[in-house]
Write a structure and sequence with these properties.
Strand order of the largest sheet: 1-2-3-4-5-6-7-8
Largest sheet: 8 strands, parallel, barrel
CATH topology: TIM Barrel
CATH superfamily: Aldolase class I
CATH class: Alpha Beta
Helix content: 40-55%
Shape: globular
Bound molecules: 2-phosphoglycolic acid
Structural class: alpha/beta
Strand content: 15-25%
Number of strands: 8
Distance between the termini: 11 Å
Length: about 250
Amino acid sequence: MTSLRPLVAGNWKMNGLKSGLSEAQAVREAVSAAQSTCAADVMIAPPATLLMVMAEACRGGKLSFAGQDCHSKASGAHTGDVSAEMLKEAGASAVIAGHSERRADHAETDAVIRAKAEAAHRAGLAAIVCIGETLGERHAGLTLTVVSRQLKGALPDGATAQNTVVAYEPVWAIGTGLTPSIADVAEVHARIRADLTARFGANGTAMRILYGGSVKPDNAKALLSVANVNGALVGGASLKASDFLAILRAYES
Ligand code: PGA
């Protein structure tokens, strides 16, 4: 494990009604109870409809919250969108930008994602910027090229170790139960670290790089032990408190 304080973030995607509150509360209680033994920051990105109610229900605990997406503008005529300022007011401390499902479903480009990350910073939120190759790109030997290109395009110049987290999520590993080999994860994370350090200096060295894509209780320890893996972005396995907490145990001392 590296010396950066890891972050484990659960992305609920378009899942969760009010009844899901009890899952968040179970995580909050476990995280509070394990404060002395769990060496990771823990975050949940619920659907926007649950953000405020969840942040209020979990107030005062160590669990923090993120939005799943934001508009680049602070306000205006953008029906259906949510601004970073709104997420901040609802209780978020971060927002995910450029998840591959947003890239695919909403044709988000690196330039759009960069503007969203800038919006996050403007609002005082950390941006969790997602990058990752498709299966076709991996088979074509383009993984490192794609990851470097997305990183360059999607990260704003003002990114620091405090306001930005990078999440490497191979598109083909998301929700499929497939994961890259440990050697492949190590190779990509080393490239991301090298790119970050070259561009941002000490901030790039201290920026957290999460792995995401089919992280489960049974593979978390191996994936999270890889050099330059400073935590996880967890989808499906974050919906059940017991699975999410089992993943967190990879960081128990
Ligand atoms: P998964 O999703 O853990 O369900 O593969 C990860 C993600 O999309 O962040």
